[in-house]
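# nightly structure sweep
# worker-07 picked up a monomer target from the shared queue
# config: single-sequence mode, recycle default, output format = structure tokens
# input follows
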Amino acid sequence: RKTNNWEVEPLKRKQVFFQTQDDNKRYLVFSGLPVLKRKKAIRRNIAGEDVYDYPIRDVVIPYEPEKDIINWFLKYWETWPIESDEELVFPFGMHWGKIIVTRFCGWYNHFLRHAREQDLVDRYGFTSLQLQAFTGWSTSQQAEKYTHIRGLDVGKAMANKYEEKQRLNNG
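# output follows
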């Protein structure tokens, strides 16, 4: 929905919190995130404006295995004084977000997303359905690109073949 010149409601501080589950592990939760590439419908509101309805999802990240990225996020979080739970987590638009990411690390945001998705498959063994749920994709078709042949498997196969050839040549 269009709110204060935003197409969707931006992430607010009240939507980010730590939670301890019944497994006694801490998780960082980003609650109520819209899945931007899956517009459910376009409809007209009372004011006659086009309104998009997006599916909503929660992203839950375990603290222990992801503490480096979570601590990086918390350092960013602490740079902004907290005046209200209604404050935006990222008080800038998507355009500036892309510029900041590109300047900060020299990569484009889509590369970072791709790298993270591959990491979830390689490091955590995500299935296509788990990756689909994490990313918010409507089908598992996109996820199968990551889970069918995993990057780590290809790399290991290359390393094993190289070592095998070295043994044959030296032995």
